[in-house]
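#lab-general

N.A. 3:47 PM
ok so I finally got the sequence cleaned up, no stray characters, all 144 residues accounted for. can someone with queue access submit it? mine expired

B.Y. 3:52 PM
send it over

N.A. 3:53 PM
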Amino acid sequence: MKVTKVEPAVHEGDGQGGTVYLHPVISGSPENEQFYKYTPGGNLTLSTINGRAFEQFHEGEEYYIDISRAGDFPLSAAGSSERMLQWFNYGHLPSHLQKASKPFYDLALHVIETTDPGPERTVALRKLLEAKDAAVRAKLNPGC
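B.Y. 4:20 PM
back already:
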């Protein structure tokens, strides 16, 4: 989806959040054209009072939006008791870094779903976290 407008909120003494207006993309890349063939039209409006969340959106940029039924992902970050999962969150990152980080989050969820809690699972998640951090740093500093 493409951000067509960002509108800062005007709150007494706050002014940090705002409203973001998104519309489906229909052209500009083969991926967009393929998406458009199979997706109905529509609009999405998001409002937040969280300034850091609001600052992630920029007019003219495109974002992936994943809408999944909540029950399909019982081990989401909010529902998991695995304390290490917090370090795999990627929503705060700029979109180009999210693309590097999200697969590691998905794999961390898979590890949590398929292994019993214990020291070996913790080691697996730590090593995966090291790999995720390295991948994000590689994206920040190509060639280093």
